[in-house]
Amino acid sequence: LPYVPHVPRMALLGKVTATTFALERPRCVFDGHADASDAVWLAVAFANASATFRNPVSRADVPRYKQLPTARSYMTLETAAAAYSCSAPDPPVLRVGGDTACRDQGRQDPCNGPLPSPGPYRVKFLLMGCRGPKAETRWSEPILLLRAVSPSTIEPVPARRGSDVVVIASILASLGAVLVTTMLGALGAKVWCFLCHQGLGTDAFTRRSYRTHHIPPALPPGCGCNPPGLCRSG
């Protein structure tokens, strides 16, 4: 069949994650090819192994999810063909890799377990009847999952930037304080020089400080008596 599976083109939260991806559900693709008892499967393979994938001849030969690491492919999402008809009311999106119970319980039935690596992967839909495959779509383009990052490899960039900002702010504050101190010192020196030139310096202040107005001038020689009327001349 000419249909090519693809990731939905619409905006969708979690469209592609580190272990899953969404597929647009094919509609009206198998009408005219399917009977009521037929089922549609999804074949999932690593992109470099899709060319060597061989359709199983029966349900018993369907490759299992747990064989993916060695077989490089598996089949999942077994669904009645009627769910892909034009009138089917089912949601328009399928989630590949969304069943975490497959990995934990090791079930033997076909599972839709989390994908073990970023891939890339290619997928196709396969219509199977009681006697084997009846129709299939083309393989999708390679689908690459997100790559998970180990927490130990994440550098605390925001914390380092915060420390750098604190250090820079401290340096700028210190330089500002030095600059203000220098300017005040230069201004004080200029004021002091101006006062000196106006006779208000240290020497003038010192001389004037000893001319106190409350000490009377020294008495003339020969006048050592008080009151003055008792003094005798020569």
TrEMBL record:
<keyword id="KW-0472">Membrane</keyword>
<dbReference type="GO" id="GO:0016020">
    <property type="term" value="C:membrane"/>
</dbReference>
<keyword id="KW-1133">Transmembrane helix</keyword>
<dbReference type="InterPro" id="IPR024831">
    <property type="entry name" value="Uroplakin-3"/>
</dbReference>
<protein>
    <submittedName>
        <fullName>UPK3B protein</fullName>
    </submittedName>
</protein>
<keyword id="KW-0812">Transmembrane</keyword>
<feature type="transmembrane region" description="Helical">
    <location>
        <begin position="165"/>
        <end position="187"/>
    </location>
</feature>
